[in-house]
Amino acid sequence: MKKIIFIRHAKSSWDDPSTKDHDRILNHRGEDAAALMNKILKSQLKEADAIFSSTAKRAKQTIEIISDGKYTIEFKEDLYTFEYNELIRFIVKLDNKLNTVVIVGHNPALTNIIGALSANKIFNMPTCGVAALLWTEASKWTEVIDNSARLVFFDCPKNHL
User: Fold this and answer.
1) pLDDT tens digits along 107-124
2) Least enclosed by CB within 10 Å: which of 9, 93, 102, 153?
């Protein structure tokens, strides 16, 4: 059995238009949303064998707030992508000893990968949104194939306002 918990970074700041995309930080709304999701995701994070995040500042801040400093996070340049095919390449290379992983990333890659890997379609992964996909028959990450997953969890901060 394999499970991936996808988290989209929280709302980022556009205050300084000269800031490179990779270097944008969270705005106050994003910080608040990540703190809210921290409370909601406590049990989900406990079951994770590994947490991987994009190296973008907004993604780093998001998972650092959500994880509350209690987990080791691996920051991967490969996850700073907007293409779901890049995420697929990352996933199939995961160590098969890992059964549940968290991946923090960006749209449209997250929306598209959830649609590609499960029969459940979401139209947009909102900022600080979380979706968990489960493969009950997979024992290797290379067995994670199109439309074979079941969406077992989907939530976002707007659901709690």
Assistant:
1) 999 999 999 999 888 889
2) 93
CA terminus-to-terminus distance, the chain: 34
Reported as a single tens digit per residue, the pLDDT across 19-57 is: 999 999 999 999 999 999 999 998 889 999 999 999 999
Q: Is 0.90 topped by the overall pTM?
A: yes
Tell me which of 3.30.310.50, 3.40.50.300, 3.40.50.1240, 3.30.70.60 is the CATH number of domain 2-9+23-160.
3.40.50.1240
Task: Specify the pLDDT at position 5.
Answer: 97
DSSP string of 91-110? HHTS-TT--EEEEEE-TTHH
d(CA 136, CA 22): 35
